[in-house]
Amino acid sequence: MMQQPGAPEPRKKPILVITSQVVRGGISGRGLTFALERIGHDVWFLPTILLPWHPGHGKGTRIVASSEDFAAIVNDLVTSPKLEELGGIISGYLGNAEQAHAIAKLVKAVKTVNPEAPYLCDPVMGDHVSASGGGLYVPKATAEAIRDELVPLADIVTPNAFELGWLTQREVESELQALSAARALGNKRVLITSSPALRRNAIANLLAGPRGAVAAEHAAITNPPHGTGDLIAGLFLSNHLQGFDDEEALKRASASVFELVARSVKKGADELLFAEEQQSVVKAMALVTSRRVLETKVRA
Q1: Which residues contact 273 (CB under 8 A, 6 or more apart)?
Q2: Which of 28, 102, 120, 155, CA to CA, is 20 to 30 A from 233?
């Protein structure tokens, strides 16, 4: 959808964010809410857990609402007359498996009053590299709840390569394997973050969409701060809501994440510098290459 020159920019719709909250740092809900608000979205934020910092920075207290309390606040939202205002939904890290059922109820309620509101599920459950050496970093029951209750509802799913492999029980070690697994998942759009890249020392984000597949690549950055998966998911959803096609939405989101990471690392930060480098979120200057990915070998 092209905007006419001189026309006022259309108001961006509110987005419901359902994920973790940290006291220090820019991961998950804290950075995602800031980024979405900075580019013009009102944000409804439902925390699933309260942490002092990212678990990679050390052990800390975990505060999770009881299943009854979490379900109660979801019921409040479900019955709100304001629910129809929402333009999209993102879910990420869960505090326990029981939250998945309540979140699914909330997603269905939003879809009832606004069928056009896309639901993006970021299945935060594990990675090839973690403090424990790789694998699931949430209880298996939580990962299964995400797989069984949330992923099937999603218009967009944003797993990393490990999560995609776990969800589909397939190997994801090459671009073609990643694309094949994404198609097997069956959602309308699957964005694989940190997908296998074609170039050496590069990072790829691979999107399997209804009109084909596209990859965006940029140089890899050593020891990047946490929170990049949350950010690219939110920025891609925002770009999608603004009417950009899949390739442009992916390029813009990838460029913002790459630039924010590069600037944060250059300054020696162990967290993404959202406030200091917020212009990277609004309009990145970094160049990210994109290319169409042929699927003939995948679908044979």
Answers
A1: 26, 260, 263, 264, 267
A2: 102
CATH 3.40.1190.20 fits 15-299, yes or no: yes
Give φ, ψ of 63 to 5 degrees.
-115, 115
Residue whose token pair is 């973790």: 20
235-260, pLDDT tens digit by residue? 999 999 999 999 999 999 999 999 99
Secondary structure class of 147 (helix, strand, coil):
helix
Which is it for the CA torsion 257, 231, 131, 125, positive or negative?
A: negative
Q: Quick one: pLDDT at residue 1?
A: 47
Whats the size of the chain, residue-wise?
300
Q: Which of the pair, 56 or 289, is modelled with greater confidence?
A: 289
Of all residues in the chain, what percent carry a pLDDT higher than 90? Answer: 78
- Are 265 and 197 in contact by the 8 Å Cβ rule? The answer is no
Is the per-residue pLDDT at 14 higher than 60?
Answer: yes
Q: Which of 198, 208, 194 is nearest to 261 (CA)?
A: 194
Residue 157: strand pairing partners: 121, 190
pLDDT band at 55 (very low <50, low <70, confident <90, very high): confident
pLDDT band at 192 (very low <50, low <70, confident <90, very high): very high
Looking only at the bridges linking them, the beta strands covering 156-157 and 43-51 are unpaired
In the block, residue with structure tokens 């390739």: 247
CA nearest neighbour of 147 among 109, 189, 186? 186
User: Across 9-42, where does the E strand assignment appear?
Assistant: 15-22
Residue tagged 């296998």 (tokens) = 196
What does the domain layout of the chain look like in residue ranges? 15-299
> 104 near 70, Cβ under 8 Å?
no
Confidence (pLDDT) at 299: 46
Q: How far apart are the C-alpha atoms of 223 and 239, rounded to whole Å? A: 27
Cα distance between the two ends of the chain: 34
